[in-house]
Amino acid sequence: QKEVEQNSGPLSVPEGAIASLNCTYSDRGSQSFFWYRQYSGKSPELIMFIYSNGDKEDGRFTAQLNKASQYVSLLIRDSQPSDSATYLCAVKGSSASKIIFGSGTRLSIRP
Amino acid sequence: GAVVSQHPSWVICKSGTSVKIECRSLDFQATTMFWYRQFPKQSLMLMATSNEGSKATYEQGVEKDKFLINHASLTLSTLTVTSAHPEDSSFYICSARALESNQPQHFGDGTRLSIL
User: Fold this and answer.
1) What residues of chain A lie within 8 A of the CB of B34, using their CB?
2) Contacts of B1 (CB under 8 A, 6+ apart)
3) What pLDDT score was predicted for residue B8?
4) Which of B3, B44, B49, B114 to mutate to test the interface with A (most CBs of A within 10 A)?
5) 3-class DSSP state for residue B95?
6) I need a labelling partner for B66 at 20 to 30 A (CA). Which of A62, A90, B49, B82 fits?
7) CB atoms B104 and A31 under 8 Å
8) What is the average pLDDT value for chain A, to the nearest integer?
9) What pLDDT digit, counting tens, does each position of A8-55 carry?
10) What does the pLDDT read at residue B44?
11) Which among A43, A46, A104 has CB closest to B93?
12) Contacts 24+ apart (CB under 8 A), B5-12
């Protein structure tokens, strides 16, 4: 089992709809969770981080964390074509200094 | 805030050349820096983790004598690809993290390395 798992996609969502990206992790003691966006040919860019169970909202983005289910998600409201990218889920485990990245979900917003 | 500058953006050089890539944290002190490599359409691959003032920790399968990492200050880490060959051509990305280990990693813009 991979430490951080994401569906590779592509996930196709119509413009204006809600895009839902999911991620599961194996280390139950994980404390910090991050979402990065990576455009093709570019480096990853931090979108959100969340440490506590529940929802955290920032503009059109909402991160959701459920530690009991070892599940973290990212919702993008009012999806725009510019949201088309690969979204990387990253988790800092209980003991490691590095964060573990999922392989990413490719999101495509169709006009 | 949390800006990481990586230089150069592009390098094209002949086989056998050594190439140095710099990674700087501009507005925070980076106690830990990370070096990644990414091949086209593939995931990020962590190469090594470096802490200021100590030797880097390399991931399994990464040759430490080929990929020399120096993290001499809280704002600068360098990666030197020694005697580069065409198979070393890739997108190299650094990231930096501040003192608190639960803080996010912030990425530089990456260096695209092409070895002819």
Assistant:
1) 98
2) B27, B28
3) 97
4) B44
5) strand
6) A90
7) no
8) 94
9) 889 999 999 999 999 999 999 898 999 999 999 999 999 999 999 999
10) 92
11) A43
12) B5/B108, B5/B109, B6/A43, B6/B93, B6/B94, B6/B108, B6/B109, B6/B110, B6/B111, B7/B111, B8/B111, B9/B109, B9/B110, B9/B111, B9/B112, B10/B111, B10/B112, B10/B114, B11/B111, B11/B112, B11/B113, B11/B114, B12/B114, B12/B116
Instruction: Give the single-character DSSP code of A82.
Output: G
Place of tokens 């990492």: B69
- Joined together, the tokens standing for residue A79 give 């999806």
- Which residues does chain B have with pLDDT short of 70? 1, 101
Query: Distance between CA B101 and CA B10 in Å, rounded?
Result: 31
Q: Is A1 on the interface with B (CB under 8 A)?
A: no
Q: Which of A86, A98, A100, A103 to mutate to test the interface with B (most CBs of B within 10 A)?
A: A98
Give me the residue from B44, B104, B108 closest to A101, CB to CB: B44
- A88-106 residues labelled b (16+ CB within 10 A) or e (exposed): bbbbbbeeeebbbbbbbbb
pLDDT at A1 over 70: no
